[in-house]
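## tool: complex_structure
## caller: assistant
## args:
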Amino acid sequence: MDTLILSRIQFGANISFHILFPTVTIALGWVLLFFKLRFNATGDERWMDAYRFFVKVFALSFALGVVSGITMSFQFGTNWPGFMETVGNIAGPLLAYEVLTAFFLEAVFLGIMLFGFSRVPGWLHTLATFLVAFGTTMSAFWILVLNSWMHTPVGFEMRDGVAHATNWLAIVFNPSMPYRLTHMLIASGLTVAFLIAGLSAFRLLLGDKGGSARLSLKTGVTIAAILIPIQILVGDLHGLNTLEHQPQKVAAMEGNWETRGNVPLLLFALPDEAARENRFEIGIPGGASLILKHSFDGVVLGLNDFVAEDGTVMHPPVFAVFWSFRVMVGIGVLMLVLSWFAAYVLWRRRPETINPWLLRGFVAMTFSGWVATLAGWYTTEIGRQPWLVQGVMTTKQAVADVPAPMVLSTLVVYLAIYVLLTTAYISVLFYLARKAARGEDVKPLTPSSGAAEVELIPAE
Amino acid sequence: MMSLFGDPAVWLPLVFAGLMGVSILVYVVLDGFDLGVGVLTPLAGETHKDRMVASIGPFWDANETWLVLAVGLLLVAFPVAHGIILTALYLPVAVMLLGLILRGVAFEFRAKAPAPNKPLWNRAFFYGSLMTALSQGFMLGLYIMGLQWTFATVAFACLTALCTTAGYCFMGATWLIIKAEGELQVTAVRWARASLNGLLAGFVAISVASPLVSPRIFAKWFSVPEILLLAPLPVMAAGITALVWWALTHLPDEHDRYRHVPFVAGSVLFMLAFAGLAYSFYPYVVPEKLTLYEAAAAPESLLIILVGTVFVLPAIGGYTALAYIVFRGKARALSYD
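## result:
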């Protein structure tokens, strides 16, 4: 394998590992603020118990997000120097604003949010919780502005092969940004909703008597049931936006080789790029035309239009895009069914004990948001290939001239660490849930390490 | 507006070099102490370990953000240099990143994972801190050697790796003198005394090697009148070292009144060393190859970052200070309550 593909795998691995944790912290910050405000308003200890449990999940996710994010900021230089050399004038300020307006805010107030409960007045602790949630969202905003700009670049001109900004408003509010940002923020909300519901269901299955598990299950289910239909709508709008600006990506998502009307909506197929056709196709006739063009005979661009005269393929790899898109949509449908059914049960029927099979369903879906988010990102990012910045520079032009064995050796170590840490993360979350179900560690004034006793300094 | 202070292609790169310098310096002092504490943990017993980690718990995250800012500024203000430097330092950067990952997550896992796994995460915390400190020192050495990979330059980089690690241990130990009480504080004074030697060895090694490697730096140091203007630097460093040494032989004092002295003085030492380096390498951002003016991004882009920085940096300073005030005083066991 050459340096390009190894660097792509390495960056893909790093960013896949990284995105897992911001996806949790972006929305969980707001849910924690919700728990805190409910506690402030009602004085009900169960809200504070829910806060105490999920703030640990937050802290752990945050740490993993920070360290994997630092990796990203260095890899621009170590593996992709061409990116900043060409579009640094645009990417630079956006990244700088992310660090300045988001990273410091969340990092500093996280300390107060986690360890300051008894050291600062209540309002400051609530404010710190708000600022951390706000910071993570700001961070998502800036990074999605940059990412969207790479898909739909506007507001710049090329001078001597280097991009120069001409209109910052156009750059920030580039055509795909509103859709991508909304889609990602809701994805974070859904990931957290199912994470909360899954861990709470797990606690209930173990016989948690605390009352906060039932409350947080209901919170998770409600958030999921509200967000999923909105997400499906936003996803559809995002798809139409992509059709306008990156038709080759949509062609790959639909597995559509020829430009034609009456394009079927494929439920199953094995796209074969060598033969440039699909095998074992099962589809709904005219379905894709209907979704994309709102009429059965709507003409949709096909992949074969994106092959240059000399045979150079200027569309993304079809198989990966086609299937990751289906994985995302499939999980979305599962989320819809499960969350609406559970919402009906919990809000309407209010049973004494919840059916264990429903709870098991949520435990199984604990990390479904991760899978859907990754599948969605693979769809859009692999779907951008061979471009790094659509129409401006290809991925190949940006890669560093580092020997392949060096990239391979660091890649192997990174992968090993990522597998280890993801496993550790998941098992620690369930370990914390088991501990909470046994009624340990939920009472106030118990240190999280369980190792040293607390000596509180009164808040002055 | 851009030409208000003269040619923006001249002053903007300079301003950004200054900002980057400040971020690196703040990073070295702040993350220096928490990396140092990490490297020192295996020397301490179980209860002391918890207390040591507690002394840096609320701060480490924000401290590391200065590294992101520093490399971010390099990335956005000097994109070409960012590429050259980081590709040349590919392996040490990878080692540092793995170290940062290990220690960052070990912080959380050692407190949350099942008790039998705690020693494992303690080890991860130590090795992560050690890898980070060593690789940063290694990068410093290689940078001084003009980013060349030869036997001699790597040997020198290994030396600076050890000295930087000792320097971080010194900062960690002096931080513990502020935050710890009783036996741990006494031990921290001992650690500070031992690691001070390593730090000083590093200063000497860099001071000897820099002018020998580069005739340009030699000329910058030893010609008249530069040598007279530079003279206060080593004199001040010597004075401060003497002050630190005196403080370390008298600490812990009766009312804990001078507990801040070694940490503050140590920070000033780092500042002086950094000023010396900055003076020597100016105007180069990639040693002997690329000046900061050649490497700078377009002035329009720099200006838009600068506007944001001017507003945001004081705010960052403000709430960072707030965090240090909230968590002032002796370190207590960490608790979410």
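## assistant note: The first strand of chain B starts at residue 284 and ends at 286. Chain B touches chain A through 76 residues (CB under 8 Å). Handing back to user.
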